[in-house]
Amino acid sequence: MNIIHICVVREFTAGQLKQLGFEDTASAQLPNGAWTTLGLQTGPSNATFVRQIPWLFRPIFLRNLYGWMTVRRLSRQYDFVFLRHMGFDPFAFVFAPLFPNRMSVHHAKEIEELKLIRTGWKGKAASLLEHLSGKFVVSRSRAIIGVTREIAEYERDLHHLNLPVHEFPNGIDETQISILKDKRNLSELNIAFMCGTFSAWHGLDLLIDSVDAVSDQDVLQGMRFHLIGTVPEPLLKRVKVSAQFICYGRLKEADYKDVLSLCDIGLGSLAMFRQGLSEGATLKNREMLCLGLPVYSTHKDTAFQDPFQFYHKDDAIDLEAMRNFAMQSKRISRKIVRDQSIPHIQKKQIMIRTINFLKGLD
């Protein structure tokens, strides 16, 4: 079975590149399928699986056109084409019906996300076009693939379709991630909160609110939150006056791992409900677990169908529960966290499950 996974963007984020890189290297280890990963972006890249979009097609809508042209050129060479959904796409009305082996791949509830990213009439217009073009694209797919089952089922139910659904979550290649050094301090509780840019669904504002609202100061005793990533100015003003927060801005990998080596746990997204989601499969969580760092979050993770010792989920931020989880995690070796997490988050196994799903469609 031959599969190609195509993603078209303006510029890949560091996290997106890392995830596609894990997929690309894992493809060489698959026992029952040939898998090609292809990223298309406007700028150059050193990644072997990324191609630069020709200058003529780099404007926003024309990028989508080039993506469809690439699908048209390659679709006959593969049994299945995974195409990451391109939002508010007018070219979908022309190309979507042409490729019966195409899978529509979704990483978000796009309509809800557009309302967060674009405010005012632009957001409303983009959401309307997405509703129309999205339905056309999804309804003409062989199956609906979501980074979580929740997202895949949402797309199916939103458009009232009777199509197979499958989850294809983010995953890691553990051979590329070395375990953290252990510089934990017995007298402190150090907690990492890491992302490229803190957005609404990360919930940093809710964490700050929770810290400000604490009445029992013993809960915060020795507790420090290490913020790695770009903090928006309104939130930056708030954390700079708090003794509980340390801001680093964006760091290179070696530097942020030095910070993580001090930490007892890391935080996942704390406000995913703002995207209309209760379930996630973030690469950040998987990378932290593979590094040997347990994760506290307020959403379900697709990797863990049952309670998992090193992934603590609360319905809302509970600083006392967070503190207890960090205290318990402090006594557990990083290697145990890593070794017990890998079977749940390994990209190779995720791809094998996906190939088995595709076999059931033949």
Report on the structure:
The protein is α/β, with parallel strands linked by helices. The chain is 39% helix and 19% strand. The protein is built from 13 helices and 15 strands. Strand 9, helix 8 and strand 10 form a beta-alpha-beta unit. Helix 10 crosses helix 12. The radius of gyration is 21 Å and the shape is globular.
Features:
362 residues; alpha/beta; seven-stranded parallel beta sheet; 13 helices; 39% helix; globular
Between the first and last Cα atoms, what is the distance in angstroms? 11 Å
Please provide the count of β strands. 15
Question: Biggest β-sheet: count, sense, barrel?
Answer: 7 strands, parallel
Task: Work out the helicity level.
Answer: 25-40%
**Uncertain regions spanning at least 5 consecutive residues:** none
Spatial shape: globular
Structural class: alpha/beta
Helix and strand pattern = EHEEHEHEHHEHEEHEHEHEEHEEEHHH
Count of DSSP helices?
13
Major β-sheet strand ordering: 3-2-1-4-5-6-7
Rg estimate, integer Å: 21 Å
Strand composition percent: 15-25%
* Mean pLDDT rating: 92
